[in-house]
Design brief:
Blueprint lengths: L2 E5 L20 H26 L14 H9 L6 E3 L5 H6 L4 H8 L33 H14 L6 E6 L6 H12 L4 E7 L2 E2 L2 E2 L20 E5 L3 H19 L2 E6 L19 H8 L2 H11 L5 H23 L26 H4 L1
Parallel strand pairs: 1-7, 2-3, 3-4, 4-8, 7-8
Antiparallel strand pairs: 5-6
Bound molecules: thiamine diphosphate.
Length: 358
Amino acid sequence: MRISTKFAPRKSTDGQPLSCITETTLKPEQMLELYRHLKLTRLVEERLVNLAKQSKVVGGVFRSLGQEATAVGSAYALGPGDFITPLIRDLGAVLVKGIRPREIFAQYMAKAWGPSGGRDLNIHFGDMEKGFIGPISHLGDMIPVMTGVLLAAGMQKKKTVAIAYIGDGGMSTGAFHEGINFAAVQKLPLIVIAEHNQYAYSTPTNLQTAVNDLAEKAAGYAVPASIVDGNDVIACYEVTKRAAEFARGGGGPVLIEAKTYRRRGHAEHDDQRYVPAGEIEWWEKNNDPIDRCERYLLEQNVATKEKLEEITADVLREIEEDCAWAESSPMPEAEQAAYGVFDNDIVPPSFRPEVLKN
Ligand SMILES: Cc1ncc(C[n+]2csc(CCOP(=O)(O)OP(=O)(O)O)c2C)c(N)n1
């Protein structure tokens, strides 16, 4: 089965860092929206790191530094009724789906007003109305879960498309293979975004799978595959948009391998001593998704430097406001702990997290 490389990383001829592909149907205002989401993702994560250093975060902080474009560009290609199930590395997709930074801050701090009311952490929550299925595991299990969601949607005659994100490590688990096989047999409209970010915790990809391109695995299930430059937000959008049209039209699942790089460790506690010297610095200097998007917007006269600064200032204002809101939330009361664990409907209104009350 052929792997499409139409949106795969291009080689730079002049040694200059690349910007983004120019073949796009996106309008200038949509490109600026993508840029805003990229900045929001990075700066929300930076704020989370600061909160962790102040001992305000419960549990680890997981970053998508250097690979934000994969989550943002792909999620942006979905319609409002479509679903995602993200990994901890896909905060960008969660924000694109309309989750507010205040929810993320409150959730990471295990506050009573967070979406899970302090019962779980980071992005371990969901929002069915916004099409966000909370992850139960990073390692493959969400592929069969999303397959079930799509099976149910099909039975209800809905034209729903869904993205399940998976890492290079997660793709070596049994759950991944069972899930994609079932989706292929049932011709379900599932888009699997395989984030090839080079490391699974501390294990480099070549030590846990023998294929060079994760896209090769799709052939085992007769699933069409594409390789995309995961650091080009426009390419990620375009390749996912095509996959969504194909899947919605009855073509069945699609696998997209996004070539990218994880610049931080598995979580902030990880000192990355297993990474060869100079590797992270190379990616930071030559292949940062936000730098590339900025260059593109300036080259294509979509925005001026001042406009981009204005967007960043607005993002920072939102973060400031939302972080203050989350910090002002109380911690959950002990007697609330058992409510909502199995069924949100039985949570008395006064016990519901502030963000879920309206
Ligand atoms: C059964 C199980 N074993 C181990 C872990 C710990 N764990 C969480 S993510 C992860 C590595 C995932 O790597 P990859 O799929 O490449 O995704 P990435 O973190 O690079 O985005 C590990 C070992 C877990 N959550 N569940």
